[in-house]
Amino acid sequence: MTDVAVKRIYEQAEEGDGQRILVDRIWPRGVSRARAALDAWMPEVAPSNELRKWFGHDPERWDEFRVRYRAELADSPHLEQLAAMVTTSPATLLYSARATEHNQAVALASILADH
User: Fold this and answer.
1) Please, which residues have CB within 8 angstroms of residue 105's CB and are 6 or more apart in sequence?
2) pLDDT tens digit string along 23-78?
3) What is the helix (H) or strand (E) element at residue 35, kind and residue range?
4) DSSP secondary-structure letter at 15?
5) Which residues does residue 93 pair with via DSSP β-bridges, in sequence order?
6) Is 21 helix (H, G, I), strand (E, B) or coil?
7) Using alpha carbons only, what angle is made at residue 106 by residues 104 and 107, rounded to the nearest 5 degrees?
8) Is 22 helix (H, G, I), strand (E, B) or coil?
9) Which of 16, 17, 69, 79 allows an S-S link to 92, with CB 3.0 to 4.6 Å?
10) Contact indicator for 91, 55 with CB cutoff of 8 Å
């Protein structure tokens, strides 16, 4: 697997981002499609609404969130598709949450590294 970075979608797109892949289920507020400069939007790899609401970016739930999120993605063809995309060239997983250390993109990067 090539390098997979994680970045808030509200940050400026940079040439070094490689493939820019939004991994949120819902389109981020205030971001135009042009400004997002996406190569792909994969809402199917985002946590379910139930898991997202349960987690609420609570650092005390982080470890359990990662376990549950990994279970949701088990045998997912969308995860396989994403893994194939990031195998060929550098990529940046984009998210909109304010929490920079405890969000689905960070967890997903870890899942991809183990994949």
Assistant:
1) 6, 7, 23, 93, 94, 95
2) 999 999 999 999 999 999 999 999 999 999 999 999 999 999 999 999 999 989 99
3) helix 33-36
4) G
5) 6, 21
6) strand
7) 60
8) strand
9) 17
10) no
* Structure token digits, residue 95: 């998210």
pLDDT the model gives residue 1: 55
- Residue 18, sorted as left (phi over 0), alpha (psi -120 to 50) or beta, turns out to be left
Q: What percent of the chain clears pLDDT 70, i.e. is strictly above it? A: 98
| Per-position b or e across 52-79, b if 16+ CB within 10 A of its CB | beebebeeeebeebbebbeeebeeeeeb
CA distances from 3 to 13, 41, 90 (A): 17, 18, 5
Q: Is 96 within 8 Å of 7 (Cβ atoms)?
A: no
Which tokens hold the place of 93?
A: 């997983």
The b-or-e profile of 14-43 (16+ CB within 10 A means b, else e) is eeebbbbbbbbbeeeeeeeeeebebeebbe
Q: What is the pTM of this model?
A: 0.93
Tell me, what's the pLDDT at 17? 95
3-state secondary structure of 6: strand
Q: Could you tell me the two tokens for 15? A: 């040439």
